[in-house]
Amino acid sequence: MERVLSEGIIYKISKYADNSAIASAYTYDYGKIKLFISKAFSSKGGVQTFIPGEIDFLKKDTSELNKFYTFRPDTLYMEYASTPAISLRLSLYFDIFDKFYELEQSDTVIWTILKKYKISDYSKINLFSIYALLTNTGHMFNFNACSNCGNKIIEQGALNNGLYFCKKCAPDNSFLTESYVNTILRAFSNQELYKNMKISKYDELSVLDLFVYHIENITGSFLKSYKLFKELILTI
């Protein structure tokens, strides 16, 4: 066992007993971890979620449940928890994160992206963060060319069983996209195009519909948080 300190973000707290809880966190040094918090709920508000900061905990060698000591939020990011437009997107992101990352699976790129909500357009960074997650875990489909004919997809595309097709080659029951969705997808690998692109909430939802369809097809499970996300995101 070793007491360690790592930058990270606590994204989920589940009540265990009395004032104790089990928390899920992403850390820069140790990836995804589980924490036992003996006093998670108090008159002072308890442990804060969705704020980057430093997590002080006892890392155990014989258990996946580590002992939590303290969390020191980074004051530069306090707005994350109090801004629904950020916390709602982070909730969706980490719901997806949990489906693809195992405990202590490291990915330091995540930390860099999470901190960009401070300076970036929320819709744009949300889509890029999920694109990066799928890419880094080897689950992003190839959207540059049709999986059947090999032609570049400029206009409407179609996703079917993890493969992307042009409209002409699309199998029955494919998930169809619009041309602007393909433009947004291409921007993720083109720095100049990405920098100058403006993405509305409606554009964001169109791309997310595609991503969520793909994620649910891969995992075989319904992404419950996305339903709530769609209901609330246009109201804030």
Topology:
Layout (H helix, E strand, L loop, with lengths): L1 E16 L2 E8 L3 E7 L15 E7 L5 E9 L5 H4 L1 H17 L8 H6 L7 H15 L20 E4 L2 E4 L8 E2 L2 H9 L3 H6 L4 H19 L4 H10 L3
Parallel strand pairs: 3-5
Antiparallel strand pairs: 1-2, 1-4, 2-3, 4-5, 6-7, 6-8
Helix pairs in contact: 2-4, 2-8, 4-7
Could you describe the 3D structure shown?
By secondary structure, the protein is α+β, with helices and mostly antiparallel strands. Helices cover 36% and strands 24% of the residues. It has 8 helices and 8 strands. It has helices at 79-82, 84-100, 109-114, 122-136, 179-187, 191-196, 201-219, 224-233, and strands at residues 2-17, 20-27, 31-37, 53-59, 65-73, 157-160, 163-166, 175-176. The strands form 2 sheets. It has a 5-stranded mixed barrel. The longest helix is centred in the last third of the chain and has 19 residues, at 201-219.
